[in-house]
Amino acid sequence: MGLVVVVPESTQVSGDGEPTWTDPAVTARDVRLAREEALDRFPEAAGATVVGGASQGGARATAIALTGDPFPCRGLVAVVSPYPELSDVPATARGAATRGLRAYLLTGDLDTTRDQVEHLYADLMAGGVQAELGVVPGLGHEFPDDFPERLRHGLGFIFDA
Questions:
Q1: What residue ranges define each of the domains in the chain, with the CATH number in brackets?
Q2: Measured at the alpha carbon of residue 50, what is the angle toward residues 45 and 54, in degrees to the nearest 5?
Q3: How many helices (H) and strands (E) are present in the chain, helices listed first?
Q4: How far is residue 150's CA from residue 155's CA, in Å, rounded to a whole number?
Q5: What is the pTM for the complete model shown?
Q6: Per-residue pLDDT tens for 117-157?
Q7: 134: nearest Cα among 101, 102, 109, 97
Q8: Is the separation of the CB atoms in 56 and 27 below 8 Å?
């Protein structure tokens, strides 16, 4: 699709030794540094940044995309992601809408965060962010088997502005 994909690994480590995105400030720093490294190699991608993640990482990506901190984003891809820890998502979404943010949200009908994803979708739309919600039948809190096709569709939605 002509995109540069950067997948940063968090510098935060959970009790089980796995990477985690617990601290929002450290998350923003890690993502900002990964973006800076990518833009050093591909400066033409500066205006087309899409952030994404799944579960906790998706909630952090949502906060980054909505606030524009540490950088403005063109799009958001959030998979089975809980509602972000922001004080006023509809108001924040209005600011993101003025920057042209578009969002693709994906959840499963059996996902434990489905209600939160649907609430986020409603708040994004109420705030003027163009968003699309996919609900996968039979899917729990995980990636669907056909995720590559769904991601391609979501990125097409984001860049078809």
A1: 18-159 (3.40.50.1820)
A2: 145
A3: 5, 6
A4: 9
A5: 0.92
A6: 999 999 999 999 999 999 999 999 999 999 999 999 999 99
A7: 109
A8: no
